[in-house]
Amino acid sequence: MTKNKGNVLGVIKTIASHQLFIPLLALVLLAVVNLVNDPSFFEIKDVTNNAGYIVKSGALITILDYGSELAILAIGMTLVTAASGGQDISVGATIAIAGSAMLRVLCGGNSRPETIQAPIIVAFLVACIVGMLCGAFNGMLVSIFKIQPMIATLILFTAGRSIAAWINNNELPIVPDPKFAYFGGFIPGIPIPTTVFIAAICIIIIAIVLKFTNLGLYTQAVGINESSSRLNGINPTFIKFLSFVILGLCVAVAALIKVSRLSTINYSVIAKDIEMDAILAVALGGNALSGGKFNIWASILGAYVIQFLTTTLYKFNVPSDALAAYKAVVVIILVVFSAPKAREYMEMFVKKLNPVRKEAA
Amino acid sequence: MNETTLLKMRGIDKSFPGVRALQKVDFTLNKGEIHALMGENGAGKSTLIKVLTGVYPKDAGTIELEGAGEVAIHSPQDAQNLGISTVYQEITLCPNLTVAENMFIGRGQGVLTNWKQINADADKLLQSLDIPARATQQLSNCSIAVQQMVAIARAVDMDCKVLILDEPTSSLDEQEVEKLFGLMRDLKEMGVGIIFVTHFLDQVYEVCDKITVLRDGQLVGEYEIKDLPRVQLVAKMLGKEMDDLSDIKGESDEYKGNDAGEIVFEAEGLQSDAGIKPFDFHIKKGEVNGFTGLLGSGRSECVRAIFGADRILGGKVKVHGKEVKINKPIDAMKNGIAYLPEDRKIDGIIGDLSVRDNIILALQVMKGFFKPFTKAQAKAFADEYIDKLNIKTASADKPIKALSGGNQQKVILARWLLMHPEYLILDEPTRGIDVGTKVAIQKLVLELASEGMSVTFISSETDEMLRTCSRLVVMRDRKVVGELSGDDLTQNKIMATIAGGE
Question: Is position B343 within any domain?
């Protein structure tokens, strides 16, 4: 009996030490809370949207929709965290820059154009380039000038939204083409939000990249031991730089979704504080914020869990202003529990409980 | 306590987790004496200094000071109050303050400060010590040597009785060193006891009165400078007696291929930013040679320069007689050169990655970013070498940091052997690992050489070098000072060459 118990404990320990354990546990907890509070949380209804199409609607759809943009950012943020041991806090501001550049191309500097002035794909590619340039700027500061990532990205964090406003002369152009709204909304005839498909494409691309290149191995090696990586022929400077450029690309995709949702932009609030959610997703996925080993799938799952949490808080009528305070509680719990010191204490605690049992055995 | 005795440390013990850094060490310093503290890196010099200055608490032993009796030193502040001052290799002053400010800062003159008075005092002190600096000058405008002297002046002005100089000369040129020595002699006249820690043998014999030698955390002895010739000093530091002539050349087959004797790698005037003098070097196919010298003599820096691990400042490099550029590790790897670094933890292992990833890393990088090995390939490579080198690990998926030191070293060795290099550089491959593994690694080196691999082998243990190498490059003070081969390969010859001078 005791032996059996030990085995069960062992199994539990193995499961608990798996990286996906914490985000999954959080997910289950949130689901249970919602189930108890109001089972209608899980209902998915068919509704007719503004454009006259029947689409799915409900809290879960919202989570998938908004969780997807976060998941895309979590991919890049995971790589930056792993390689540089720090985080990019300029994500929201660079979304504004990339989004603004996209609008400028689409509207051609005219704030109320009759038709779009360039194909959407061109505008998107420009946004990609702008996003990657912002990433390259951050990456250069971090990898070449060895500035701490948070400090380096503080520059764009501070200046980004002004730059975004300046790109369109502080006007708020509106994209006239209804097709542009598809990316952050629905494609006619498809009842599932387009963001889900965009996130799926991004996830498939990163899966392919991780499978067919050494990005994962190099990034982890650099994050764990830069000096040793260099002596093995890896160029740590380039790997760190690359991680920021990849995040820049993720930012451009998120910018497409964000701008598409409104068909316009609000420089001061677009994607505000989204970097904090992206960082939280990485942490929730059990990845060390000090860099090194990472699990990108755990981060992606973490992103959806964060959105689940946000949506749940809305359901509890938490005003959006107070949202951050509630999330902060989650962050504190997470950070404290993932700290090695906390584990030490927990182990000591378990040991204190255990000696009796050991003696009995 | 004798009346000329200034400081008496007796039976000092200090342990860190897993290491006994000091074991029953005694140290005595007299008034007006310059006393060299010698020993290789890791011998316990810095630990002893740090115990004396209150950085580390001692585990056992007593410290007595003239006029104060037995003292307890719990912090650097305590040490300073007792008149023990330290000047470190790196300047610990504030470069953007003036000389006078640096000399008087943090010494509590009350709320109001009479800068005029302080500047005048500082100038007087600087003049009396013959230090070429003005009180109002910004410290960063002075040369490093003068900055160091200002640090010393600060110490002197704080009524210091014991002055510790920890490697003060390593960043100074010859003239600056002379100036510093002048100052040291002046202080000696004034009755200050100076503890001088350095790697440079010449300087010890130029300025010191006494030498205390430490080895492996234990006291070897205290000697008058005139009683201890250089060669003896080196022998004491290395722990080898001069009469110990047992030369034990290993019995292994030499490489006998058609291309035996062909020069695989050749360097001419190679120089890196790690502070070594330009050096020439070559190695033949199937040869095992080595760099020897005391720790800090520049032997690691030489092989790092060969591998492109430090920034290369100049020199020509030829591989198989063809001139190539090796500016970074990947260049060296592409030319068939592998390098097992001295510091396994910092430069070798990638702690959190699995044993398997650690083994395949170098070969994987060579193969290219876009061509990752499949899981099956990686597993096959890892299993092959885990078996070949008898690496003890629960599985290839275990993180390397969970392994013992010897097994970690084998994993790093496996990493480079997997690359099938033509030229393998092993920098201290046997440090900190068990005897069994040491012997296994030496055997492996000879075996690889008999198959045609060229190997450069560095070890702090001269025995190991003699057993494996057929030619030794000897280094002192960051330059190559000799080369030994054939009958010259004996302990005595090596020590004599390291000591030089006489």
Answer: no
